[in-house]
Specification:
The protein has 317 residues and is α/β, with parallel strands linked by helices. Helix content is 32%, strand content 18%. It binds threonylcarbamoyladenylate (TXA) and magnesium ion (MG).
């Protein structure tokens, strides 16, 4: 069931059920982080391997401090500036956080989401919420309640409908457990904004392969079912694949033949707008059922870096 009742969502969560929740980044699949059976349900519904840990969502820095041994100076600066917002901090956990949530790691990923309904919900609860993105493992993240309903609707107790996600990309994950902050996942908060606050360049560790430090960095991720190619030169790719049924995900000014279905992430070339549209448009094109989706690379500035990261992971074979 989908609706806007935080009271109903809270009731389900207190009963150990799984609820779809809106955030400013993407929709989450939430459960009481302290209820192991509920957390296990989240992994199962998502078909997510237990080695891939979950982010803890809280409503205040004070609450977050109960789950973190100590906030480093950098972490505190970032939290004060960007929470609530699209920032996840990786910090040493306290004994209160179950190992199941962190997949056995001593570090916990934690954030305060910036969405009025979910903040209201979190304040009604006396436990934090463990929530991965509300999509089947590996598929495109949901940015509308309808996306959650379409794929996981029959497996969740309730979907709290908070409208379209305002940012549309997952949170940026910053590991603040060492002396120098490291970014493990690009996301809705740009590197530049982070560096401005901590006053030094951050290290980017987007390692992939078989043993990723943040499994959101698995090579193949955020992927539609349809084969997907990220291109720098669209006209060349259109020509090369002209005998296939094509769909195009473009940005700014570009041209396609009349018989090719195309969506434009932002006709005016605005990267924030492109981020908001990205996952919805990827789903729309996937559902049309073309043989191949050609996506145009966006400029590598601001949120463009994270958009290109998602596009290139969608394109991994
Ligand atoms: O914007 C977001 O972060 C959304 C919304 C719902 O908050 N959540 C989200 O969760 O994107 P998920 O599970 O799809 O991605 C979380 C990423 C995964 O790559 C996971 O491996 C990493 O965070 N992560 C979580 N806990 C971790 C930990 N203790 N150590 C290292 N990586 C961690
Ligand atoms: Mg995810």
């Amino acid at each position: 069931m989908t609706g806007t009742s935080t009271a109903l969502a809270a009731e389900c969560l207190r009963a150990g059920k799984v609820v779809g929740i809106p955030t400013e980044t993407v929709y989450g699949l939430a459960a009481n982080a302290f209820n192991e059976d509920a957390v296990i349900s989240v992994f199962k519904i998502k078909n997510r391997p237990f080695f891939d840990p979950l982010i803890i969502h809280t409503h205040s820095v004070e609450q977050a401090q109960k789950y973190v041994l100590n906030f480093s100076e950098h972490a505190l600066k970032l939290a004060k500036r960007f929470w609530p917002g699209p920032l996840t901090l990786l910090l040493p956990k306290t004994g209160q956080v179950p190992d199941l949530v962190t997949s056995g790691s001593d570090l916990v990923a934690i954030r305060i989401p910036d969405h009025p309904l979910t903040l209201e919900l979190l304040r009604m609860l006396d436990f934090p919420l463990a929530a991965p993105s509300a999509n089947p493992f590996g598929y495109i993240s949901p940015t509308r309640a309808g996306h959650v309903e379409a794929q996981l609707g029959d497996q969740v107790a309730y979907i709290l409908d908070g409208g379209e996600c305002g940012i549309g990309l997952e949170s940026t994950i910053v590991d603040c457990s060492g002396t120098q902050p490291r970014v493990l996942r690009l996301g809705g908060l740009s590197l530049k904004s982070i560096e401005e606050i901590i006053g030094m360049p951050v290290q980017l560790v987007l390692s992939a392969g078989s043993n990723p430090s943040a499994p959101g960095q698995l090579d193949k991720h955020y992927a539609p079912r349809t084969p997907f190619i990220l291109c720098e030169n669209l006209s060349e790719m259109l020509l090369r694949h002209r005998h296939k049924k094509l769909a195009v995900l473009g940005f700014g000014a570009f041209q396609v033949p009349d018989d090719v279905y195309a969506l434009n992430l932002s006709t005016v070339g605005n990267l924030d707008e492109a981020a908001r549209n990205l996952f919805h448009y990827m789903r729309l094109l996937d559902n049309i059922g073309p043989e191949l989706i050609l996506a145009l690379k966006v400029p590598d500035t601001g949120l463009g870096t994270a958009i290109n990261d998602r596009l290139s992971r969608a394109a991994v074979k």
